[in-house]
């Protein structure tokens, strides 16, 4: 009887060791790979487009992850404003930015929802499986972030930004976006009439120019009275003028 008990205890002990090793191996197998790259997601969208809410929802998922290596932006275009609902966040300059991408990609058409990933891959903004595949691929590519945002502070009605870059090139533009983290809109007309739409990472204002210095660069935006700094963020990214490829990116909260 004693031998039987000892045998049972030994069997249980070995089984527990096996389970522990198996659990460790499983955790190791499913552990996420180290993310050495970055991803800038530029979604061209509109509250007046019935195809856009699914794409907005995908961008929302990336936004609320708050992954420092993933930078989502929502550019609300204005060319659907005539069909019943004027998107309150739309700007003609954002439509023009999308047209510039179309020229780079040698495309005759622009549409919503369109997602541009790192300035070099274009996808339908609602195709989640393809988007996830490209995002994971880009995150696995080791890249050197060339931007350091030193400061983003509000003084009276002005937001002042200071940043530095590691490489200076006449072939590179620096893009700076003032981004509202979240807005909720009750859409009363148009294709999405009756929808309560939540939008994330809305580009409120945008500037693009050639940086003149490596170590001391600045930019400013009008910051309206009544706006709360905590509701906004600043996104800065470098982009090749000829290819459109984004070569560095950073984001920061506003003080």
Automatic annotation (TrEMBL):
Organism domain of life: Bacteria
Organism, by scientific name, is Flavobacterium cupreum
The record's annotation in PANTHER family points to:
LIPOPROTEIN LIPID ATTACHMENT SITE-LIKE PROTEIN, PUTATIVE (DUF1223)-RELATED (PTHR36057:SF1), PTHR36057
Name the UniProt record assigns to this protein: DUF1223 domain-containing protein
């Amino acid at each position: 009887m004693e031998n039987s008990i000892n045998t049972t205890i030994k069997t249980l002990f070995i089984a527990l060791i096996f389970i522990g090793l198996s659990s460790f191996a499983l955790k190791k197998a499913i552990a996420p790979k180290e993310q050495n790259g970055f991803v800038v997601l530029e979604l061209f969208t509109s509250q007046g487009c019935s195809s856009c809410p699914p794409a907005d929802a995908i961008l929302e998922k990336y936004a609320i992850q708050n992954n420092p290596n993933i930078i989502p932006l929502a550019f609300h275009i204005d060319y659907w404003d005539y069909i019943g609902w004027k998107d309150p966040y739309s700007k003609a300059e954002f439509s023009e930015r999308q047209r510039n991408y179309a020229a780079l990609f040698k495309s005759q058409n622009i549409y919503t929802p369109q997602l541009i990933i790192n300035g070099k891959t274009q996808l339908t903004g609602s195709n989640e499986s393809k988007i996830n595949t490209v995002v994971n691929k880009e995150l696995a590519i080791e890249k050197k972030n060339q931007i350091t945002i030193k400061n983003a502070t509000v003084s009276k009605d002005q937001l002042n930004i200071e940043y530095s870059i590691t490489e200076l090139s006449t072939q590179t533009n620096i893009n700076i976006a003032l981004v509202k983290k979240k807005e909720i809109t009750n859409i009363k007309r148009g294709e999405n009439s009756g929808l309560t739409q939540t939008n994330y990472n809305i580009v409120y204002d945008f500037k693009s120019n050639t940086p003149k210095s490596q170590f001391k660069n600045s930019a400013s935006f009008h910051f309206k009275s009544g706006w709360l700094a905590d509701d906004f963020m600043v996104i800065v990214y470098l982009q090749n003028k000829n290819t459109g490829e984004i070569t560095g990116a950073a984001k920061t909260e506003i003080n």
